[in-house]
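User: Before I run my own analysis I want an independent prediction to cross-check against. Here's the chain; please return only the structure tokens and, at the end, one sentence I can use as a sanity check.
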Amino acid sequence: MRKKAVKHTTLPDPKFGDVQVTKFVNNLMYDGKKSKSFDIFYSAIDIVSEKTGEEGLDIFRKAITNVTPQVEVRSRRVGGANFQIPQPVRDSRKVSLAMKWLISYSRGRNERSMAQKLANEIMAAAKEEGAAYKKKEEVHKMAEANKAFSHFRF
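Assistant: Structure tokens:
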């Protein structure tokens, strides 16, 4: 029997003491430049607080919740044909997908700085709009459309 992968413990971030923030920053990081990523994230949160007048971290959590997918489609080969089979997403994967979508769609925006891009994407996601939220809706639609194949689930 195979061994289970060991879960690494992530330390909470220095400013908010939140593990989720550290995980987000780790996804945001390029070339091991973690302090730069923290700078970008914290300034994005400051921008969000400034623009909304609410607590930036709460808006960030709301954005993550809004972008988190519940189901996804996975390809499975049955009798020579590939079917897209809807499946529930694992808890750890849900949050990880949400973070990755937020970051990748932030990078695709065209504002001045990464902090600005991230802040605007977070605010959009918190209001249930923006590219990352659209991606989640798209994934849910795909799953809904392929519900007929859910009996092929493995």
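Sanity check: Residues 34-52 form the longest helix (19 residues).
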